[in-house]
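Appendix B. Chain record.
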Amino acid sequence: MSDSVSLWLTDAEMTLSAGASLASTLYHVPVTILLTGSLGAGKTTFLQGLGQALGIPQRLTSPTYALEQRYPLEHFGELLHIDLYRLTPKEAMHFIHSSERHHGIRCIEWADRLATPVDGESISIALAEHQDGHGRDLQVSFADIAIPSLDQVNAWREEFFLPHLIGRHCDAVAQTAVRFGEAFQERGYIVRLAALRAAGAVHDLFRFVDFHRGTAHREREIHPLHARKWEEIKEQYPELRHEAAVAKFLTGKGFSELAEIVRVHGLTLADSTRITTEQRLLYYADKRVKLDDVVSLEERLRDFTERYSHLGRLRESDAWYDEARKTEKELFPDGPPF
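Structure tokens predicted for this chain:
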């Protein structure tokens, strides 16, 4: 399952911020970013925004004559900026082969000069003049992370006997997270909506590992077959809360990036590794959904307090509310869209 984004960028400033937003949805290296578009389409401007967001102090310029420039990065190794404008397709392929083992972020301008696709994980950025001549159309195609289909997610739900109420909650969180992601895209920011939807759909897949007497999620009568399966999962992921257990399961199934989105959605304490756009949107959406209804953070806090206060978890409720409010203000400075 793949992911793609289509944005309308009204001016150079918006192109710059779109490039910066890409830095907040990178999950691993090595990765190749392929840029196409006519002269003046905004390819270099886009990369300048990316470079700024990645902490590169100098302004990126196209290495048209030098062919490549290298910039050290704090978290992703090195950004390699390549410009193929002056090369023939044959020369371009030869030159690109020399950088195939680059272990950081490889950005290739004029990637349409390449006769064959590059190897490895990639993100394609296509910029073109908007049909009315105002601004640019941006098309982003991701081919760098694996995303399970919703059919696969539903098969997992059946395999692990996920309670119907929790499935409804997952679906509501997925839908809500996507709506918040769409609001982000309207501001010209890149968001992986397919990954966000899948993460929401699976985020509470192992919610039962946290079940205990006295919570609304605990069924009065649990089918023995379901109980045995749940105990097997608890034994397979000992001492883990459901967030970490689901993340470990997803990693084992080949969805390690999705695991990173799910891993930090928990209710309790702040997590300094919750840094990507999808991680933050899923976390916030989960705090806005009470069962399958979208509510305010205040109402969600009241619900959490009512269900868990007798278990001595008021301190946890205060912690997640403060973190959720902080995240809300960071994501939507002018207030959430709904």
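Further analysis of this model is presented in Appendix C.
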